[in-house]
């Protein structure tokens, strides 16, 4: 774990960790195996109880581990982890432990067996809500958030508060190796 | 329409218009009525044929129009439209035509009856894939993209190419009146 011990995020505010559409790392574990993959297609689905949605292709080891364990973690990587995120999205856990091949490290979650990825900005521990039709037809997994955490340098009191360090921003994948960083915050007043 | 006539986007690349998780405006029309609302919870679901997913609350007029017409458009607003986006997300079309109350203008789509919102950066015309369980249980609508367009100032040859004008960036809603702009683009090389 880094020097910046994660703080707990109120479940009612946990949707805010994904509301801006960052790319996530999906971590999973079952039966002594674990894995991490990248997913651009992930978002909140409900506020209370908080639910998240993520698309997980049938070919992946992550899919196998999530289906077996009924759990996953959505980790919000920083720009400092963009290279590792691309690597986690471009290789298969079937070809070797992706924590080894990407250099990503992990630490234990609080409510699920899947690990939390070190150096991320936020973490959402999820338990799968079984949806056989969605899983089979759309590769769609719905999880209820059972615990949420954030790096207090960037998320405090229910709000993202990015500092001036560009590498501490969340990231948004497009295609190839192209990402956008999360940009400037701005406020709009209701008229 | 602005001076910057939309260009057609190859359907195979249309997922890139939403892959970075921007907040969208959802436009709809049926039986002489039309509406526009904001949605932070929207994302690509599949590449080919391209499918998009959006969460539409049961209480909304948009829901009624989409269920009646089987069509909707996901419009990607620029920061210049952030105030109107917040307004479209904070009021109901049942209380009056939101194109009037928000000042948003529109022009015709090519393949669906729902209008395109003027001044947006990109537009995805969608036909609903009926999913009664997802619609009822999760307020989730899945649409196949039947036409896609973009402002050539910001999206060309299948790639976002934002200029230096901050108001031409896409936006990412968090809560209250807080948004992030889409930030700096960066490239990561596969190792």
From TrEMBL, chains A, B:
Q: Keyword Flavoprotein, does the record have it?
A: yes
Pfam families cross-referenced by the UniProt entry:
Flavin_Reduct
User: What InterPro entries does the annotation carry?
Assistant: Flavin_Rdtase-like_dom, Flavoredoxin, Split_barrel_FMN-bd
Q: Does the keyword Flavoprotein apply?
A: yes
* Keyword annotations from UniProtKB, A to Z: Flavoprotein
Q: What does this protein need as cofactor?
A: FMN
The record places domain Flavin reductase like at 16-157
Give the family, as the similarity comment puts it.
Belongs to the flavoredoxin family.
From the Swiss-Prot or TrEMBL record, give the protein name: Flavin reductase
Q: State the organism of origin.
A: Silvimonas amylolytica
């Amino acid at each position: 774990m880094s020097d910046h011990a994660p703080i707990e995020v109120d479940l009612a505010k946990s949707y805010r960790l994904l509301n801006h559409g960052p790319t996530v790392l999906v971590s999973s574990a079952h039966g002594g195996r674990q894995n991490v993959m990248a997913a651009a297609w992930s978002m909140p689905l409900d506020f209370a109880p908080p639910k998240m949605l993520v698309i997980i292709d049938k070919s992946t080891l992550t899919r196998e581990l999530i289906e077996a364990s009924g759990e996953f973690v959505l980790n919000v990587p920083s720009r400092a982890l963009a290279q590792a995120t691309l690597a986690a999205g471009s290789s298969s856990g079937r070809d070797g432990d992706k924590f080894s091949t990407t250099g990503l490290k992990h630490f234990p979650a609080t409510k699920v067996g899947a690990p939390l990825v070190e150096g991320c900005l936020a973490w959402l521990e999820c338990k799968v809500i079984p949806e056989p039709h969605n899983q089979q037809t759309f590769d769609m997994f719905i999880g209820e958030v059972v615990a949420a955490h954030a790096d207090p340098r960037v998320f405090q009191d229910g709000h993202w508060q990015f500092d001036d360090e560009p590498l501490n921003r969340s990231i948004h994948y497009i295609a190839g190796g192209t990402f956008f960083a999360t940009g400037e915050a701005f406020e709009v007043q209701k008229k």
